[in-house]
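Example record

The entry below shows one chain as it appears in the dataset: sequence first, then structure tokens.
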Amino acid sequence: MLEGGRPDVRGAIADARAAFDYLTAHAGELGIDPQRIAVAGSSAGGHLAAALGSGLPRAAGMPQSTRPVAQLLYNPMLDLSPGRPDHHLVEDYWQEVSPHHHIDGAVPPTLILVGSQDPEVPVPTAQAFCSAIQQAGGTCEIALYEGQGHGFFHDPVYRDKTNQRILAFLHSLKMGPE
């Protein structure tokens, strides 16, 4: 925790990185293919998934982090720059933790699922993130759900629709169940 009771998002990213690194390092004994590990998350969890896809954390002098082969982001917090929702939580170090500001050519194929009425992740934020990935030579798609807000996929109707869209995306990458 930081001064004023604000969470330190850097710790959450470090925890996500440690979990991902453990999974890749122990893939054989866990019976999984390390070349087929995708990450997913919603809202703050989507931020953590996007952070892993963007190679965060990047400490000076450390080798490039292993990245997932795909990222599935449900209304994720992507841009934490000033003026954005939740910037106040990270205002002292937002550049360190904002996935949008760490996009490079190694960001894995990305699917962003977002509602058109999401006040936390406005559609232009998702579009800008996707465009930056594409400009860096990567693959990014947006699945837009009209009239839906933050967390729309919890509704059983949208849960099924998002699961179908995710499977289609994974199949396009030659991943996912047969």
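Notes for this example: The beta strands are 38-42, 70-74, 110-115, 140-145. Helices lie at 9-25, 27-30, 44-53, 94-97, 123-135, 156-172.
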